[in-house]
Design brief:
The protein has 87 residues and is an all-alpha fold. The protein has one domain: Tetratricopeptide repeat domain (Serine Threonine Protein Phosphatase 5, Tetratricopeptide repeat, Alpha Horseshoe). It is built from five helices and no strands. Helix 1 packs antiparallel against helix 2, helix 2 runs antiparallel to helix 3 and helix 4 runs antiparallel to helix 5. The chain is globular, with a radius of gyration of 12 Å.
């Protein structure tokens, strides 16, 4: 069984991904921001935030979030590929 903190760490970004994929980027953005307030080193949350920002037409915010995701997880090719697409 997951601890409450681990459960929140997993569900925040997963819900964000679900909202983003189902056309609710503002809801996704909100969940990613809440996750990052609690876990500011969470690369996947920055990645999701970057995609949500990009979907919302906020290119500069998307670049900032994706750059942070890549800095936190420099070996993640998926993050780097999206950063190149948005750049």
């Amino acid at each position: 069984m997951l601890s409450k903190e681990r459960h929140q760490t997993v569900t925040g970004p997963l819900l964000g991904h679900a909202f983003r994929r189902f056309g609710e980027p503002l809801e996704a953005r909100s969940l990613y921001i809440k996750t990052l307030q609690r876990w500011p080193q969470y690369a996947s949350a920055y990645f999701g935030l970057g995609l949500a920002e990009f979907t919302l037409g906020r290119r500069e915010a998307a670049l900032e979030a994706l750059t942070t995701a890549c800095r936190l997880d420099p070996k993640n090719a998926h993050f780097r590929n999206w950063l190149k697409k948005v750049s």
